[in-house]
Amino acid sequence: MFSGHLRQFGMFLGHFKIAWHVLRAFYDSLACFKGILR
């Protein structure tokens, strides 16, 4: 039971990491776009 819970937590952490990378890439592109506009 404990190992299954740990695996679920690892999956959640993996999804969170992916979301964080996507968000950072989006923020970086937005900042780049703002730099071009100025």
Question: What does this 3D model show about the protein?
Answer:
- By secondary structure, the protein is mostly helical.
- The protein is built from one helix and no strands.
- The radius of gyration is 17 Å and the shape is rod-shaped.
Key features?
rod-shaped, mainly alpha, single chain, about 40 residues
Write the layout of secondary structure elements.
Layout: H1 2-37
Binned, the helix content reads: over 70%
* Rg result: 17 Å
Count of helical stretches: 1
Shape: rod-shaped
Taken in chain order, the helices and strands follow as H
Proportion in β-strands: under 5%
Say what oligomer this is.
Answer: single chain
Low-confidence stretches: none
Largest sheet composition: none
What integer is the average pLDDT? 91
Assign the structural class, choosing from mainly alpha, mainly beta, alpha/beta, alpha+beta, or little secondary structure.
mainly alpha
Number of strands: 0
Distance from N terminus to C terminus (CA atoms, Å) equals 55 Å
